[in-house]
């Protein structure tokens, strides 16, 4: 009887975790980043680069000049990082940059993680 209860608990817990990851996965797959959406989030969040450069104008210019292939790769990377490492990246963001709310991070996860990846704070998934 214990084994049945334990097995049922593990199965339900695993399904719950899978459902949460699937929900995030679908949410972040639904739209694609653009260089303009990145600059909009730079303005809204007050994002200040820390590693690649400390000059916000240079960073913004770099973001606006990203080619289509780079934007496409950022879409793939950020989809995975928002879906699988969501909470970890929220905490990393607030450690390195001006703290933001969880609600704002959830709504702009792909853009914020893309900015962190460009800045060198988070690394591309392997």
Description:
With 126 residues, this protein is mainly α. The chain has one domain. Helix content is 74%, strand content 0%. It has 7 helices and no strands. It has helices at 2-29, 35-45, 56-64, 68-84, 86-96, 102-107, 109-119. The longest helix is centred in the N-terminal third of the chain and has 28 residues, at 2-29. The radius of gyration is 17 Å and the shape is globular. The model is unreliable at 5-21 (pLDDT under 50).
Give the structure's gist in a few sentences.
This protein is mostly helical. 74% of the residues lie in helices and 0% in strands.
List keywords for this structure.
126 residues, mainly alpha, globular
> Into which percentage range does the β-strand content fall?
under 5%
> Ranges with pLDDT <50 over ≥5 residues?
5-21
Report the mean per-residue pLDDT as an integer. Answer: 81
Helix content: over 70%
Radius of gyration in whole Å, from Cα? 17 Å
Q: Shape from CA axes?
A: globular
The number of helical segments is 7
Identify the quaternary structure here.
Answer: single chain
Structural class: mainly alpha
Order of secondary-structure elements: HHHHHHH
Euclidean distance between termini CA atoms: 42 Å
Total separate domains: 1
How many individual β-strands? 0
